[in-house]
Design a protein that fits this description.
This protein is of the alpha/beta class and about 350 residues long. It has 2 domains: about 130 residues, Response regulator (Rossmann fold), CATH 3.40.50; about 180 residues, Methylesterase CheB, C-terminal domain (Rossmann fold), CATH 3.40.50.180. It has 12 helices and 14 strands. Strands 8-9-7-6-12-13-14 form a 7-stranded parallel beta sheet, with helices on both faces. Strands 2-1-3-4-5 form a 5-stranded parallel beta sheet, sandwiched between helices. The protein is globular and about 60 Å long. Keywords: Chemotaxis, Cytoplasm, Hydrolase, Phosphoprotein. Its main location: cytoplasm.
Length: about 350
Amino acid sequence: MEQYGVLIVDDSSFMRRCIGKLIEKDARFFIVGIARNGIDALEKIKRLKPHVVTMDIEMPDMDGIEAINHIMNTCPVPIVVVSKHTYEGADAAEKALNLGAVDFFLKSEVIGEDIPLESEKDFLKRLKIAAEGRSENSIAGETKIERYIESPKKNNTANKSQVNLIIIGCSTGGPSALQSILPRFPEEFNIPIVVIQHMPPGFTKPLAERFNSLCNIRVKEIENEEAIEGGTIYICPSGFQTLIEKKGDKLSFKVTDKETIETSYRPSINETLLSVAPLYKERLLTTILTGMGNDGLIGCELVRKHNGSIIVEAEESCIVYGMPKVVFEAGLADSQVPLSKIYEEIISYL
């Protein structure tokens, strides 16, 4: 059984003990150390090389937000935020995820006398996903090797009359990647865009609201049974799966808490693509951005089977080169380009 080292970062000794006791319930984890603030965390990440870090937000000297920014720029490692911030104060959580944190938990959801066993199991399961998703080129203490590969276009035969839907899937580092793409679509852009961003429950609505204030076209969180319209960027709600259904000659979203395949992600890129690919076929353009793990691989296999087009982000710009890597190495991508060229690459397919 593979084991994963965890660094616990929190200024409260009581909270460090509580988080430590929770982590020690799973034999797959061992605690490599504790840190009392962001400065302490930076030094210990470089020295102890943990597989994953739990990070508080409010700490003295250097808070969690500043620490995440420094860590992801100097010694990247998966970070799971465990904070007392409420959903109403989701700005800090969004900043943490935007800077590259993998996941976000409220302390009240995982620590306490009346916490359901299922909540503890969910936390440990997602902590394991974070630890396993550490990129081979993003290990603390190692230098990221930059490279740029562009695969030959296999299927770039689409034109504006053929591409009827754009899917964008992302995870770790996704919010900041989206910020470099979504505001560039012009006001007259009339193809619907569906964004599948891995986020904790409750945080996709604030994400949609923020992008709605930044973008030239409408951005909103998807609602169940909502009809798909052009000129809109749709954000899949966290905590659920988002599918697309055809009823008669109308296409609409189905938001459900049930899965059709085994997956740890809500929303799952695979779930959405599996429902979309048979409907849109060669009229579907899929883009896979930065993220850990392999969500999107199964869906992209079906996209390819139905002659849809696939773009993946290049390693050099990914915070975690996981999801794009598996799609590219499976030979499914039509092109692989750095984040700075993703928007132009999408437009080139239209």
